[in-house]
């Protein structure tokens, strides 16, 4: 079993409150869930209204499938013009890695 994750650091556009931030992120999180069938969550920068950290986690039988899902997630986030993707950090492990 392979476990992979990607964490996105985003700069949000014209957002002036945490309520606006939630409204801007909600559709992207839902789209990521639909497109990747992976676990998706806001994982950081909860108290900043113009920054967001989004995490995507996936489990699959082979590393290639995990990579495909993470690539799809990155393309989807990068395609949103209302955000600036500052960075994307990835990880990949086998379930029997120590």
Describe the structure in your own words.
A hairpin with a 6-residue loop joins strand 2 (39-44) and strand 3 (51-60). Helix 1 (18-36) runs antiparallel to helix 2. The longest helix is centred in the first third of the chain and has 19 residues, at 18-36. This protein has helices spanning 18-36, 63-78, and strands at residues 2-12, 39-44, 51-60, 83-94. 36% of the residues lie in helices and 40% in strands. The chain has two helices and four strands. It is an alpha+beta fold and 98 residues long. The two termini are 14 Å apart. It has a four-stranded antiparallel beta sheet, covered by helices on one side.
Brief account:
By secondary structure, the chain is α+β, with helices and mostly antiparallel strands. Helices cover about 35% and strands about 40% of the residues. A hairpin with a 6-residue loop joins β2 (about 40-45) and β3 (about 50-60).
Task: Record the SSE blueprint.
Layout: E1 2-12, H1 18-36, E2 39-44, E3 51-60, H2 63-78, E4 83-94
Antiparallel strand pairs: 1-3, 1-4, 2-3
- Could you give the order of strands across the largest sheet? 2-3-1-4
- What's the story with the biggest beta sheet? 4 strands, antiparallel
Q: Count of helical segments?
A: 2
Which residues sit in consecutive blocks of at least 5 with pLDDT less than 50? none
Q: What structural category arises from helix and sheet content?
A: alpha+beta
Order of helices and strands: EHEEHE
């Amino acid at each position: 079993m392979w476990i992979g994750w990607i964490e996105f650091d985003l700069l949000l556009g014209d957002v002036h409150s945490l309520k606006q931030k939630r409204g801007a992120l909600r559709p992207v999180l839902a789209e990521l869930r639909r497109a990747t069938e992976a676990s998706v969550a806001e994982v950081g920068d909860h108290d900043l209204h113009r920054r967001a950290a989004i995490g995507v986690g996936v489990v699959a039988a082979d590393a290639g499938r995990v990579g495909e899902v993470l690539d799809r997630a990155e393309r989807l986030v990068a395609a949103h013009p209302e955000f600036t993707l500052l960075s994307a950090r990835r990880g990949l492990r086998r379930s029997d890695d120590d």
